[in-house]
UniProtKB/TrEMBL annotation:
<comment type="similarity">
    <text>Belongs to the 4-toluene sulfonate uptake permease (TSUP) (TC 2.A.102) family.</text>
</comment>
<feature type="transmembrane region" description="Helical">
    <location>
        <begin position="246"/>
        <end position="266"/>
    </location>
</feature>
<keyword id="KW-1003">Cell membrane</keyword>
<feature type="transmembrane region" description="Helical">
    <location>
        <begin position="214"/>
        <end position="234"/>
    </location>
</feature>
<protein>
    <recommendedName>
        <fullName>Probable membrane transporter protein</fullName>
    </recommendedName>
</protein>
<dbReference type="InterPro" id="IPR002781">
    <property type="entry name" value="TM_pro_TauE-like"/>
</dbReference>
<feature type="transmembrane region" description="Helical">
    <location>
        <begin position="145"/>
        <end position="171"/>
    </location>
</feature>
<feature type="transmembrane region" description="Helical">
    <location>
        <begin position="183"/>
        <end position="202"/>
    </location>
</feature>
<dbReference type="Pfam" id="PF01925">
    <property type="entry name" value="TauE"/>
</dbReference>
<dbReference type="GO" id="GO:0005886">
    <property type="term" value="C:plasma membrane"/>
</dbReference>
<feature type="transmembrane region" description="Helical">
    <location>
        <begin position="108"/>
        <end position="125"/>
    </location>
</feature>
<keyword id="KW-0472">Membrane</keyword>
<keyword id="KW-1133">Transmembrane helix</keyword>
<feature type="transmembrane region" description="Helical">
    <location>
        <begin position="48"/>
        <end position="66"/>
    </location>
</feature>
<feature type="transmembrane region" description="Helical">
    <location>
        <begin position="78"/>
        <end position="96"/>
    </location>
</feature>
<feature type="transmembrane region" description="Helical">
    <location>
        <begin position="6"/>
        <end position="36"/>
    </location>
</feature>
<keyword id="KW-0812">Transmembrane</keyword>
């Protein structure tokens, strides 16, 4: 990689890490579109660009989630009981997601990514108050919810916050706690999903040098260096913002990213 590319990846990693701490989305929803742009501009095989962007993004979340959750934990906002209930389903789903993605072409995967992101943003902006008596489901329901969160997150290369945050808010978990808990869920999603992407991409023809399955290691190293440093700053900002502002910020980021991936699918 040349120095200009390193500089772009560092800047992108800083933005992704800040978003990871601020919004509890692991940074993946921010990183995938930008990594797609960079890999496309650098001549990566078109049929592998989105698959590699998703896999590389997911791998970064192993590191940003740890940095982010440490900052949220200091505020006492992480609900570890919720993490324990969702994690088993999440681990299974995150392994399945990349396998599903491998069966899809780049355009279909881009469309799926954009559709989920746009739907999540719309749900956040609706600001519909949950029923006062609604609570999180029991153990079986949480396992199933974790499976859905993990599968979709593994499929689109994100930390799952775009589903888990609205899900927890719908069940009357305070938005700041939902964001913090989502950050903690990012690690099992990223670990399982990354291993799956390595396994299913291992023998894929046409991968660039220094790829580990679908994960592009040079980009991973540079992005992680910047994102781990910035995630705690995002987490601190989140705890200073009111609920309405945090939801609007979440939705605005997601709509912008959905727009780019819709464009990429048809370009």
């Amino acid at each position: 990689m040349d120095w200009s590319l390193v500089a772009v990846l560092l800047l992108m990693g800083a933005g992704g890490g800040y978003a990871a701490g601020l919004l509890g989305i692991g940074g993946g929803m921010v990183l995938v579109p930008f990594i797609t742009m960079i890999f496309t501009a650098n001549g990566f095989p078109p049929q592998l660009v989105v698959h590699m962007a998703i896999a590389t993004s997911l791998a970064t979340i192993m590191f940003t989630s740890l940095s982010s959750v440490r900052a949220h934990h200091k505020h006492g906002a992480v609900q570890w009981r919720i993490v324990a209930l969702l994690a088993p389903g999440i681990v299974i789903g995150s392994w399945i997601g990349p396998w599903i993605g491998k069966q899809m072409n780049t355009s279909a995967l881009s469309l799926l990514f954009a559709a989920f992101v746009a739907f999540s943003a719309a749900q956040m902006l609706r600001n519909k108050r949950p029923a006062a008596g609604r609570e999180l489901p029991g153990a079986a329901g949480m396992f199933a919810a974790g499976g859905v969160i993990g599968t979709v997150a593994g499929l689109v290369g994100a930390g799952g916050g775009f589903i888990s945050v609205p899900f927890m808010a719908w069940c009357n978990v305070r938005i700041h706690q939902a964001v913090a808990t989502s950050a903690a869920l990012g690690f099992p999603i990223a670990l399982s999903g990354t291993l799956s992407n390595i396994y299913y991409g291992w023998a894929e023809p046409g991968l660039p040098a220094y790829s580990l399955g679908f994960v592009y290691l040079p980009a991973l190293a540079v992005i992680v260096a910047a994102s781990v440093m910035m995630a705690p700053f995002g987490a601190r900002t989140a705890h200073k913002m009111d609920v309405a502002s945090l939801k609007r910020a979440f939705a605005a980021v997601l709509f912008a990213l959905a727009g780019y991936m819709f464009y990429h699918a048809f370009s």
